[in-house]
Amino acid sequence: MSTEATTPTRVLVTGGAGFIGANFVHHIVNRYPNVDVVVLDALTYAGNRESLATVRSRIEFVVGDIGDAGLVDDLVRRVDAVVHFAAESHNDNSLADPRPFIDTNIVGTFTLLQAVRAHGVRYHHVSTDEVYGDLPLADPLRFTESTPYNPSGPYSATKAAGDMLVRAWTRSFGVRATISNCSNNYGPYQHVEKFIPRQITNLIDGIRPRLYGAGTNVRDWIHVEDHNRAVWRVLCAGSVGRTYLIGANGELDNRTVIAALLEEFGRAPDEFDQVTDRPGHDVRYAVDSSALRRELGWTPQYLDFRDGLRSTIRWYRDNEQWWRPDKVATEAAYRRNGETRL
Ligand code: NAD
Ligand code: TDX
Question: Total domain count for the chain?
Fold first, then answer.
């Protein structure tokens, strides 16, 4: 493993019109104006041009698929680093139709790896803590870099497969890659299919929040800006060949998150609906990010979940034109996939 403390000058960001990718592009354009940014995004249902509207004149935006080997090769040869966010990212969709997850998360990752291998380009792979499976409730155990992979569902299995390809391409072909596995993100520009924005936009519309099953499942929440600052730090100063876990000690069960949202909206604590549980629903995620903190000096800046939640609610209230077009179709898909009140 080697440590490289180098700042890239021209970066290809895949999935830059999605939630985390768009926040990353904003962060880089605003904080590092000398870095050229090229975005490659297929604009699937989860991608939104509007997420990049305010930085559009300062980036190159290419609409295309990470599985398109010719296009990917052309773009990769022109940059000195790739940050790979593009993915099919929603667990519920992977249960309804796993195929796009295979194509994008596995074959798409393979296509990018072949291109960075051919051109000797530095590669950072954005992944998830879900590759480690889940943990029991009320246990001191957290995921670390050495926890064995044990994915539960099609989404996490395809993310695990992508990570494995990165490790193999690093070892066998000398690709200069790092991987980060992050916990659950929240913040602006997150699609309304996901837990927190779904409930915020329900509450704005006067609809009761939807809690899967008993709501005892625990997620380890991190603000998207903290995630992206860590990704940039790993890209610039991480050791090639290494995996870094990113998390902000933000464990909360889903019931508690719903209670906080109801309080923020001035609603009674019982004004939510319990609905059909997710099959195979992971019980608890919890990330130990001490290696990242110790070795690369990263610390989260959003230390109070309630403050982060409040600013996120404010963003959805102020940006209704951004999420409104997706809301009806998203709720129709939940109904089509059998979500019913318990
Ligand atoms: P997202 O679904 O909001 O965005 C994904 C983006 O990728 C969209 O813009 C979409 O158009 C694009 N895309 C999808 N398939 C593509 C393809 N074949 N070619 C090109 N572009 C394509 O996802 P997100 O929540 O921003 O997640 C980004 C990454 O971070 C993913 O790799 C995900 O696994 C990982 N991650 C997410 C979280 C989280 O809490 N959301 C946590 C940890 C890791
Ligand atoms: O309406 C809902 N009600 C509910 O109780 C939704 C949409 C979800 N949930 C529950 C399921 C989970 O326990 O909330 C929790 C969070 O759900 P999601 O937002 O779907 O996230 P999760 O399945 O935990 O996965 C997320 O974190 C890891 C991202 O979607 C992944 O891309 C990331 O890898």
Answer: 1
